[in-house]
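Homework help board

Subject: predicted structure for assignment chain

Our instructor gave us this sequence and asked us to write out the predicted structure in token form, then describe one feature. I got the tokens but I'm not sure how to describe them. Can anyone check?
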Amino acid sequence: MNRGLRVVAWAAALLYVAVGLIELLFADGTLGHRVIFAAVLALFAALVLVGVRLIDARPWVGAAMASAGAIAGGLALFWTGAALLLAVAIVSLSVLAARRGAVLGTQPA
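My token output:
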């Protein structure tokens, strides 16, 4: 698997979880809203990490999961700027990794 994709995926997941925790602890609003926001960001982080992990076994399913989590997290945290850049990087790198995995998987032994 692509090392750069793993690094970017972990950076995005850490950003999502960190912002979710900061929102949970310090933001104004109801506790229910803060918990839901933190849980949704944690779900996006999990989608990215599981998708990247799955790219080796099922390239296109993994790329779709990682891309969905990255795009959703990037939109939820658009105001950070970094989330959008990480989302673009994850989508690009996961599709490249899936294409490379799909080509290697179809070659005869």
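Reply (TA_rk): Your tokens look well-formed. For the description, you could write something like this. The chain has one domain: 3-103. That's the kind of observation they're looking for.
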